[in-house]
Amino acid sequence: GSSLRRLIWALAIMGACIGFSLHLAELAQRYLSYPVSTEFSNEGADFQFPTVTICPTDNFVDFCQPVPLFIPMNYFRCLQDMVLDNNRVYKLLGSENWNASLRVFPYNYYHHGRLSLRAVAYRGNLFQQPYETVLYCRYNSQPCSFENFTTYKDEEGLMCISFTPTNRTIVNAGPGNGLYLVLHHVTENYLTDEEQIDYVPGFQVALHESGFKPDMSLGFKVPFGQKTTARVYAETVTKVNRDATPCSKNLPNVTYTMNYSYPDNFENQSFFGDYQDCVIRIKQEEFRDTCGCLGTHLPLPSELMNDTLVCHQLPDEVLHQNIYAVTFRHDDGTVGHTDYRISNWTEPDDRSFDFDKLIMLSDYLKDNWDSLNFNRSKTFLRCYDQVLNRQKSQGVTTTNCKVRCTKTRYRDITTTSSWPKDFQLAAK
Protein backbone atom coordinates (compact mmCIF):
# COMPACT_ATOMS: atom_id res chain seq x y z
CA GLY A 1 0.00 0.00 0.00
CA SER A 2 2.75 2.47 0.92
CA SER A 3 4.62 1.75 -2.32
CA LEU A 4 1.50 2.46 -4.34
CA ARG A 5 0.94 5.75 -2.50
CA ARG A 6 4.55 6.79 -3.12
CA LEU A 7 4.16 5.96 -6.81
CA ILE A 8 0.95 8.00 -7.04
CA TRP A 9 2.59 10.96 -5.30
CA ALA A 10 5.62 10.69 -7.56
CA LEU A 11 3.42 10.66 -10.65
CA ALA A 12 1.41 13.61 -9.31
CA ILE A 13 4.54 15.64 -8.59
CA MET A 14 6.00 14.72 -11.98
CA GLY A 15 2.76 15.74 -13.70
CA ALA A 16 2.72 19.03 -11.80
CA CYS A 17 6.32 19.72 -12.83
CA ILE A 18 5.56 18.90 -16.46
CA GLY A 19 2.46 21.08 -16.39
CA PHE A 20 4.38 23.93 -14.76
CA SER A 21 7.15 23.61 -17.34
CA LEU A 22 4.65 23.66 -20.19
CA HIS A 23 2.98 26.71 -18.67
CA LEU A 24 6.33 28.50 -18.38
CA ALA A 25 7.15 27.60 -21.98
CA GLU A 26 3.78 28.96 -23.10
CA LEU A 27 4.36 32.19 -21.16
CA ALA A 28 7.85 32.53 -22.64
CA GLN A 29 6.54 31.94 -26.16
CA ARG A 30 3.76 34.46 -25.59
CA TYR A 31 6.30 36.97 -24.24
CA LEU A 32 8.58 36.51 -27.23
CA SER A 33 5.67 36.98 -29.64
CA TYR A 34 4.40 40.24 -28.10
CA PRO A 35 4.94 43.25 -30.40
CA VAL A 36 7.05 45.13 -27.85
CA SER A 37 10.75 45.85 -27.67
CA THR A 38 12.82 44.85 -24.67
CA GLU A 39 16.25 46.35 -24.23
CA PHE A 40 18.82 46.99 -21.54
CA SER A 41 21.05 50.02 -21.39
CA ASN A 42 24.38 50.63 -19.73
CA GLU A 43 25.10 54.33 -19.56
CA GLY A 44 28.60 55.67 -19.04
CA ALA A 45 30.49 52.38 -19.20
CA ASP A 46 33.72 52.44 -21.24
CA PHE A 47 33.03 55.85 -22.77
CA GLN A 48 34.41 56.08 -26.30
CA PHE A 49 34.48 59.51 -27.93
CA PRO A 50 32.13 59.60 -30.93
CA THR A 51 32.70 60.69 -34.50
CA VAL A 52 31.62 64.33 -34.86
CA THR A 53 30.07 65.46 -38.16
CA ILE A 54 29.43 69.18 -38.72
CA CYS A 55 27.23 70.64 -41.48
CA PRO A 56 26.34 74.27 -42.21
CA THR A 57 22.63 74.92 -41.79
CA ASP A 58 22.09 77.98 -43.94
CA ASN A 59 25.08 78.46 -46.22
CA PHE A 60 26.91 76.45 -48.81
CA VAL A 61 29.40 78.48 -50.83
CA ASP A 62 31.69 81.32 -49.83
CA PHE A 63 32.18 82.98 -53.21
CA CYS A 64 30.75 82.88 -56.72
CA GLN A 65 32.82 80.04 -58.09
CA PRO A 66 31.63 79.05 -61.59
CA VAL A 67 29.86 75.71 -61.92
CA PRO A 68 31.23 73.69 -64.88
CA LEU A 69 28.81 72.93 -67.70
CA PHE A 70 28.21 69.83 -69.78
CA ILE A 71 26.57 71.81 -72.58
CA PRO A 72 28.11 74.09 -75.24
CA MET A 73 27.81 77.45 -73.47
CA ASN A 74 30.63 79.92 -73.02
CA TYR A 75 29.69 81.37 -69.63
CA PHE A 76 29.22 80.13 -66.10
CA ARG A 77 26.98 80.67 -63.09
CA CYS A 78 27.42 79.97 -59.39
CA LEU A 79 25.30 78.07 -56.87
CA GLN A 80 23.91 81.05 -54.97
CA ASP A 81 22.47 82.39 -58.23
CA MET A 82 20.95 79.04 -59.16
CA VAL A 83 19.14 78.50 -55.86
CA LEU A 84 17.32 81.81 -56.25
CA ASP A 85 16.13 80.90 -59.76
CA ASN A 86 15.42 77.16 -59.60
CA ASN A 87 12.52 77.61 -57.21
CA ARG A 88 10.78 79.83 -59.78
CA VAL A 89 10.96 77.04 -62.36
CA TYR A 90 9.42 74.61 -59.87
CA LYS A 91 6.78 77.16 -58.88
CA LEU A 92 5.63 77.37 -62.50
CA LEU A 93 5.80 73.60 -63.03
CA GLY A 94 3.68 73.12 -59.91
CA SER A 95 1.05 75.70 -60.89
CA GLU A 96 -2.20 74.88 -62.66
CA ASN A 97 -2.67 78.36 -64.13
CA TRP A 98 0.45 79.76 -65.79
CA ASN A 99 -1.29 83.07 -66.51
CA ALA A 100 -1.94 83.89 -62.85
CA SER A 101 0.20 86.42 -61.00
CA LEU A 102 3.19 84.77 -59.29
CA ARG A 103 5.02 85.38 -56.03
CA VAL A 104 8.34 87.20 -56.27
CA PHE A 105 9.79 84.75 -53.73
CA PRO A 106 7.94 81.40 -53.92
CA TYR A 107 9.02 80.16 -50.49
CA ASN A 108 7.04 76.92 -50.79
CA TYR A 109 9.32 75.82 -53.64
CA TYR A 110 12.70 76.79 -52.15
CA HIS A 111 13.17 73.24 -50.90
CA HIS A 112 12.68 71.88 -54.42
CA GLY A 113 15.12 74.37 -55.90
CA ARG A 114 17.73 73.55 -53.29
CA LEU A 115 17.42 69.80 -53.84
CA SER A 116 17.97 70.25 -57.59
CA LEU A 117 21.44 71.62 -56.81
CA ARG A 118 22.63 68.15 -55.74
CA ALA A 119 23.06 67.37 -59.45
CA VAL A 120 25.67 70.13 -59.91
CA ALA A 121 26.92 70.86 -56.38
CA TYR A 122 30.16 68.89 -56.60
CA ARG A 123 31.36 69.91 -60.06
CA GLY A 124 34.29 71.82 -58.70
CA ASN A 125 35.66 73.52 -55.61
CA LEU A 126 32.38 75.24 -54.73
CA PHE A 127 32.47 74.90 -50.95
CA GLN A 128 34.53 76.14 -48.06
CA GLN A 129 37.32 73.67 -47.32
CA PRO A 130 38.26 72.29 -43.86
CA TYR A 131 41.34 74.52 -43.64
CA GLU A 132 39.06 77.54 -44.09
CA THR A 133 36.46 76.34 -41.58
CA VAL A 134 38.56 75.04 -38.67
CA LEU A 135 40.39 78.01 -37.14
CA TYR A 136 41.37 76.25 -33.91
CA CYS A 137 41.22 72.63 -32.78
CA ARG A 138 42.08 70.88 -29.52
CA TYR A 139 41.25 67.28 -28.66
CA ASN A 140 42.00 65.47 -25.41
CA SER A 141 44.07 68.49 -24.25
CA GLN A 142 46.31 68.15 -27.31
CA PRO A 143 46.38 70.39 -30.40
CA CYS A 144 44.74 69.19 -33.61
CA SER A 145 44.00 70.86 -36.93
CA PHE A 146 41.90 70.78 -40.09
CA GLU A 147 44.04 67.83 -41.22
CA ASN A 148 42.19 65.69 -38.66
CA PHE A 149 38.91 66.32 -40.51
CA THR A 150 37.51 64.62 -43.58
CA THR A 151 34.81 65.91 -45.91
CA TYR A 152 31.37 64.32 -45.93
CA LYS A 153 28.69 64.94 -48.56
CA ASP A 154 25.24 65.16 -46.99
CA GLU A 155 21.88 65.13 -48.79
CA GLU A 156 20.77 68.30 -46.95
CA GLY A 157 23.92 70.07 -45.76
CA LEU A 158 25.81 69.26 -49.00
CA MET A 159 29.45 69.72 -47.91
CA CYS A 160 30.21 68.82 -44.28
CA ILE A 161 33.28 67.86 -42.24
CA SER A 162 33.82 64.91 -39.87
CA PHE A 163 36.23 64.42 -36.97
CA THR A 164 37.11 60.79 -36.18
CA PRO A 165 39.76 60.48 -33.43
CA THR A 166 42.20 57.59 -33.44
CA ASN A 167 42.25 57.54 -29.63
CA ARG A 168 38.68 57.57 -28.34
CA THR A 169 39.54 57.54 -24.63
CA ILE A 170 39.21 60.93 -22.91
CA VAL A 171 41.67 61.48 -20.05
CA ASN A 172 39.80 64.31 -18.32
CA ALA A 173 36.11 65.11 -18.44
CA GLY A 174 34.67 68.60 -18.38
CA PRO A 175 34.37 71.61 -20.69
CA GLY A 176 37.23 72.00 -23.14
CA ASN A 177 38.78 68.59 -22.39
CA GLY A 178 37.07 66.64 -25.18
CA LEU A 179 36.92 68.35 -28.58
CA TYR A 180 37.31 72.13 -28.61
CA LEU A 181 36.75 73.98 -31.89
CA VAL A 182 36.61 77.53 -33.20
CA LEU A 183 34.82 77.47 -36.57
CA HIS A 184 34.55 80.05 -39.32
CA HIS A 185 31.98 80.15 -42.09
CA VAL A 186 31.22 83.14 -44.31
CA THR A 187 29.01 82.14 -47.20
CA GLU A 188 25.91 83.01 -49.16
CA ASN A 189 22.67 82.57 -47.25
CA TYR A 190 20.03 80.37 -48.88
CA LEU A 191 17.54 80.15 -46.04
CA THR A 192 14.38 82.21 -46.32
CA ASP A 193 13.13 84.30 -43.42
CA GLU A 194 10.40 81.71 -42.81
CA GLU A 195 12.87 78.83 -42.70
CA GLN A 196 15.14 80.60 -40.23
CA ILE A 197 12.40 80.21 -37.62
CA ASP A 198 13.13 76.47 -37.48
CA TYR A 199 16.69 76.34 -38.84
CA VAL A 200 19.07 78.48 -36.79
CA PRO A 201 21.82 79.90 -39.05
CA GLY A 202 25.10 78.26 -38.12
CA PHE A 203 26.02 74.59 -37.90
CA GLN A 204 24.30 71.27 -37.23
CA VAL A 205 26.40 68.74 -35.28
CA ALA A 206 25.73 64.99 -35.17
CA LEU A 207 27.44 62.52 -32.81
CA HIS A 208 27.60 58.93 -34.03
CA GLU A 209 29.60 55.73 -34.03
CA SER A 210 32.49 55.56 -36.46
CA GLY A 211 31.57 53.90 -39.75
CA PHE A 212 27.83 54.64 -39.48
CA LYS A 213 26.09 57.23 -41.62
CA PRO A 214 25.30 60.31 -39.52
CA ASP A 215 21.68 61.36 -39.15
CA MET A 216 22.01 65.14 -39.11
CA SER A 217 18.38 65.61 -38.06
CA LEU A 218 19.22 64.12 -34.64
CA GLY A 219 22.11 66.48 -33.89
CA PHE A 220 22.30 69.76 -32.02
CA LYS A 221 22.60 73.28 -33.41
CA VAL A 222 25.52 75.67 -33.06
CA PRO A 223 24.36 79.22 -33.86
CA PHE A 224 26.67 81.84 -35.33
CA GLY A 225 28.42 84.18 -32.91
CA GLN A 226 27.77 81.92 -29.91
CA LYS A 227 29.85 79.60 -27.77
CA THR A 228 28.12 76.22 -27.59
CA THR A 229 29.12 73.61 -25.00
CA ALA A 230 27.85 70.04 -25.35
CA ARG A 231 27.99 67.52 -22.51
CA VAL A 232 28.02 64.06 -24.10
CA TYR A 233 26.75 60.81 -22.60
CA ALA A 234 27.28 57.38 -24.15
CA GLU A 235 24.79 54.57 -23.71
CA THR A 236 25.31 50.97 -24.79
CA VAL A 237 21.93 49.45 -25.61
CA THR A 238 21.48 45.67 -25.73
CA LYS A 239 18.23 44.42 -27.21
CA VAL A 240 16.49 41.09 -26.55
CA ASN A 241 15.99 39.11 -29.75
CA ARG A 242 12.28 38.32 -29.97
CA ASP A 243 10.09 36.88 -32.73
CA ALA A 244 7.97 40.01 -33.00
CA THR A 245 10.91 42.43 -32.77
CA PRO A 246 13.99 40.57 -34.01
CA CYS A 247 17.50 41.96 -33.77
CA SER A 248 20.72 41.03 -35.51
CA LYS A 249 24.33 40.99 -34.38
CA ASN A 250 25.51 41.75 -37.90
CA LEU A 251 23.49 43.76 -40.39
CA PRO A 252 24.71 44.03 -44.00
CA ASN A 253 26.65 47.13 -45.00
CA VAL A 254 24.93 49.76 -47.12
CA THR A 255 26.34 51.81 -49.99
CA TYR A 256 24.99 55.23 -50.94
CA THR A 257 25.66 57.47 -53.91
CA MET A 258 26.97 60.66 -52.33
CA ASN A 259 27.85 62.54 -55.52
CA TYR A 260 26.16 62.22 -58.92
CA SER A 261 27.28 65.57 -60.32
CA TYR A 262 29.31 63.84 -63.02
CA PRO A 263 27.28 61.51 -65.27
CA ASP A 264 28.56 57.92 -65.39
CA ASN A 265 31.07 58.70 -62.63
CA PHE A 266 29.12 58.44 -59.39
CA GLU A 267 30.89 58.68 -56.04
CA ASN A 268 29.72 55.96 -53.65
CA GLN A 269 30.43 55.47 -49.95
CA SER A 270 29.75 52.43 -47.75
CA PHE A 271 28.58 52.44 -44.13
CA PHE A 272 27.72 49.88 -41.48
CA GLY A 273 24.06 48.98 -41.84
CA ASP A 274 21.45 50.02 -39.28
CA TYR A 275 17.69 49.98 -38.81
CA GLN A 276 17.34 53.44 -40.32
CA ASP A 277 19.05 52.31 -43.53
CA CYS A 278 16.32 49.70 -43.99
CA VAL A 279 13.67 52.40 -43.51
CA ILE A 280 15.40 54.61 -46.09
CA ARG A 281 15.49 51.72 -48.54
CA ILE A 282 11.73 51.14 -48.15
CA LYS A 283 10.98 54.83 -48.67
CA GLN A 284 13.16 55.01 -51.77
CA GLU A 285 11.60 51.88 -53.24
CA GLU A 286 8.18 53.52 -52.88
CA PHE A 287 9.44 56.64 -54.69
CA ARG A 288 10.91 54.45 -57.43
CA ASP A 289 7.86 52.22 -57.86
CA THR A 290 5.35 55.10 -57.68
CA CYS A 291 7.16 57.96 -59.40
CA GLY A 292 9.98 56.35 -61.35
CA CYS A 293 12.52 58.48 -59.47
CA LEU A 294 14.32 58.53 -56.12
CA GLY A 295 13.58 61.00 -53.32
CA THR A 296 16.30 63.64 -53.56
CA HIS A 297 15.99 64.58 -49.87
CA LEU A 298 16.95 61.04 -48.77
CA PRO A 299 20.21 59.10 -49.03
CA LEU A 300 20.44 57.37 -52.41
CA PRO A 301 21.13 53.59 -52.32
CA SER A 302 23.74 53.04 -55.03
CA GLU A 303 22.10 49.93 -56.52
CA LEU A 304 18.86 51.89 -57.03
CA MET A 305 20.78 54.72 -58.71
CA ASN A 306 22.04 52.41 -61.44
CA ASP A 307 18.83 52.65 -63.48
CA THR A 308 16.73 55.35 -61.77
CA LEU A 309 16.82 59.16 -61.89
CA VAL A 310 16.41 61.45 -58.90
CA CYS A 311 13.16 63.40 -58.61
CA HIS A 312 14.85 66.83 -58.75
CA GLN A 313 17.06 67.19 -61.78
CA LEU A 314 16.65 70.21 -64.03
CA PRO A 315 18.54 70.41 -67.35
CA ASP A 316 21.80 72.37 -67.45
CA GLU A 317 20.29 74.65 -70.07
CA VAL A 318 17.86 76.16 -67.54
CA LEU A 319 20.17 75.99 -64.51
CA HIS A 320 22.54 78.40 -66.21
CA GLN A 321 19.99 81.08 -67.08
CA ASN A 322 18.97 84.08 -65.00
CA ILE A 323 15.29 84.05 -64.08
CA TYR A 324 13.73 87.31 -62.94
CA ALA A 325 10.47 88.12 -61.18
CA VAL A 326 9.04 91.11 -63.05
CA THR A 327 6.26 93.08 -61.35
CA PHE A 328 4.19 95.53 -63.35
CA ARG A 329 2.53 98.53 -61.74
CA HIS A 330 -0.72 100.28 -62.56
CA ASP A 331 -0.84 103.92 -63.57
CA ASP A 332 -1.67 104.88 -60.00
CA GLY A 333 1.47 103.13 -58.71
CA THR A 334 -0.23 100.12 -57.14
CA VAL A 335 1.33 96.69 -57.60
CA GLY A 336 -0.13 94.67 -60.44
CA HIS A 337 0.72 91.41 -62.19
CA THR A 338 3.99 89.53 -61.52
CA ASP A 339 5.47 87.00 -63.94
CA TYR A 340 8.82 85.27 -64.45
CA ARG A 341 11.21 86.11 -67.29
CA ILE A 342 14.27 84.12 -68.38
CA SER A 343 17.42 85.50 -69.98
CA ASN A 344 17.88 82.67 -72.53
CA TRP A 345 21.52 83.60 -73.11
CA THR A 346 23.37 81.74 -75.81
CA GLU A 347 26.57 83.78 -76.11
CA PRO A 348 28.80 85.54 -73.54
CA ASP A 349 28.01 88.96 -75.06
CA ASP A 350 24.32 88.48 -74.22
CA ARG A 351 24.90 88.70 -70.47
CA SER A 352 24.23 92.42 -70.04
CA PHE A 353 20.73 92.96 -68.67
CA ASP A 354 18.29 94.02 -71.36
CA PHE A 355 14.59 93.73 -70.52
CA ASP A 356 13.66 93.49 -74.19
CA LYS A 357 15.76 90.31 -74.53
CA LEU A 358 13.99 88.55 -71.68
CA ILE A 359 11.30 86.04 -72.60
CA MET A 360 8.43 84.67 -70.55
CA LEU A 361 9.51 81.65 -68.52
CA SER A 362 6.22 79.97 -69.42
CA ASP A 363 7.01 80.40 -73.14
CA TYR A 364 10.53 79.03 -72.61
CA LEU A 365 9.15 75.93 -70.88
CA LYS A 366 6.57 75.36 -73.63
CA ASP A 367 9.12 75.81 -76.43
CA ASN A 368 11.49 73.29 -74.79
CA TRP A 369 8.84 71.03 -73.26
CA ASP A 370 9.95 67.92 -75.13
CA SER A 371 13.59 68.68 -75.93
CA LEU A 372 14.51 69.43 -72.28
CA ASN A 373 12.04 66.98 -70.69
CA PHE A 374 10.09 69.54 -68.67
CA ASN A 375 7.09 67.22 -68.79
CA ARG A 376 9.14 64.66 -66.86
CA SER A 377 10.25 67.33 -64.37
CA LYS A 378 6.63 68.32 -63.77
CA THR A 379 5.50 64.71 -63.38
CA PHE A 380 8.33 63.95 -60.96
CA LEU A 381 7.53 67.08 -58.92
CA ARG A 382 3.85 66.25 -58.43
CA CYS A 383 4.44 62.59 -57.67
CA TYR A 384 7.29 63.42 -55.29
CA ASP A 385 5.07 65.74 -53.25
CA GLN A 386 2.30 63.13 -53.08
CA VAL A 387 4.59 60.33 -51.88
CA LEU A 388 6.45 62.60 -49.47
CA ASN A 389 3.20 63.80 -47.87
CA ARG A 390 1.94 60.23 -47.57
CA GLN A 391 5.16 59.04 -45.92
CA LYS A 392 5.13 61.96 -43.50
CA SER A 393 1.51 61.43 -42.47
CA GLN A 394 1.27 57.61 -42.57
CA GLY A 395 4.85 56.35 -42.43
CA VAL A 396 6.03 53.12 -44.05
CA THR A 397 5.81 49.47 -43.06
CA THR A 398 9.04 48.41 -41.34
CA THR A 399 8.06 44.92 -40.19
CA ASN A 400 11.04 43.30 -41.90
CA CYS A 401 13.58 45.86 -40.68
CA LYS A 402 15.88 44.57 -37.95
CA VAL A 403 17.81 46.56 -35.39
CA ARG A 404 21.28 45.79 -34.07
CA CYS A 405 21.30 43.70 -30.90
CA THR A 406 23.99 45.97 -29.46
CA LYS A 407 24.39 49.62 -30.31
CA THR A 408 25.96 52.72 -28.79
CA ARG A 409 23.81 55.83 -28.59
CA TYR A 410 25.07 59.30 -27.77
CA ARG A 411 23.05 61.86 -25.88
CA ASP A 412 23.99 65.51 -25.48
CA ILE A 413 23.01 68.42 -23.27
CA THR A 414 24.00 71.76 -24.78
CA THR A 415 24.38 75.25 -23.37
CA THR A 416 24.92 78.40 -25.41
CA SER A 417 26.53 81.66 -24.33
CA SER A 418 27.54 84.85 -26.12
CA TRP A 419 31.14 85.69 -26.91
CA PRO A 420 32.42 89.07 -25.64
CA LYS A 421 32.05 91.54 -28.49
CA ASP A 422 35.69 92.61 -28.30
CA PHE A 423 37.02 89.05 -27.94
CA GLN A 424 40.33 88.45 -29.73
CA LEU A 425 41.93 85.07 -30.34
CA ALA A 426 45.42 84.93 -28.86
CA ALA A 427 48.15 84.99 -31.51
CA LYS A 428 51.72 83.81 -31.04
Key descriptive features of the protein:
428 residues; Acid-sensing ion channels like fold; 3-stranded antiparallel β-sheet; 26% helix; globular; transmembrane helix; ENaC; sodium channel; transmembrane
Give a structural overview.
The structure is a single chain. Helix 5 packs across helix 9 (about 375-395). It contains nine helices and 20 strands. The chain has about 425 residues and is α+β, with helices and mostly antiparallel strands. Among the domains are: about 50-65 and about 125-240 and about 405-420, Sandwich (Acid-sensing ion channels like fold); about 245-310 and about 395-405, no CATH class. Helix 6 links the parallel strand 14 (about 295) and strand 15. The longest helix is centred in the first third of the chain and has 32 residues, at about 1-35. It has helices at about 1-35, 80-95, 110-115, 130-135, 275-290, 300-305, 315-320, 360-365, 375-395, and strands at about 40-45, 50-55, 135-140, 140-145, 150-155, 160-165, 180-185, 200-210, 220-225, 225-240, 245-250, 255-260, 265-270, 295, 310, 325-330, 335-340, 360, 405, 405-420. About 25% of the residues are buried. It has a five-stranded antiparallel β-sheet with strand order 5-6-2-8-9, with no helix packed on it. It is a multi-pass membrane protein. Keywords: Ion channel, Ion transport, Membrane, Sodium, Sodium channel, Sodium transport, Transmembrane, Transmembrane helix, Transport.
